[in-house]
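Troubleshooting log. The previous structure file for this entry was overwritten by mistake, so regenerating from the original sequence record. Sequence copied from the archived sheet and checked twice against the printout by T.R.
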Amino acid sequence: MDVGAVMGKLRGGGFKATPQRWEVVRAIAAEQHQSMEEIRARCPGVGMVTVYRTLELLSGLGLIRRLDLGGGPRWELAEDHHHHLVCESCGDVTEFDLCPLDPGLLDLSDHGFEARSHSVEVYGRCSVCQ
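Regenerated output below.
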C-alpha cells in the first residue's frame, strides 16, 4: 500500500487528509519498523500530539500496524501479511512471509471472538550476533 492508497482509505472513512497526516504517512512509508523518534525526525514540522493522534487513528483503521518488538513500539504500513524475526542482541528486525498459523484453524467463536489479523514474532540472535 502506498501513501496515496492510505490517504484515500482515510478519506473514504470520512476523515480529513490534512497536510500533517500526509507527512506522517510519508514518514512511515519511508521505512518499516520505525520508532516514534524516527517518525518524528522524518516530519519535524508536525507536533508530537498530532503524530500520536495520527498513529492512533491510522492504527485503529487498520492502515498501519503498531508492533511491540522490544525497545518500545514501532510502526509499519499494514500492506501485506508477514511476520518478524527479532534479534535480542542488536535489535535488528527482519520480515519473513512464511506463516505458521492457519487462520482457518482459528475458530474462536467459543470465546465470542472473531480474529481479524494476527502477528508472529520470533526472538533469537541474528547471524551477525551469533
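The chain has a mean pLDDT of 87. Archived copy saved in two places this time.
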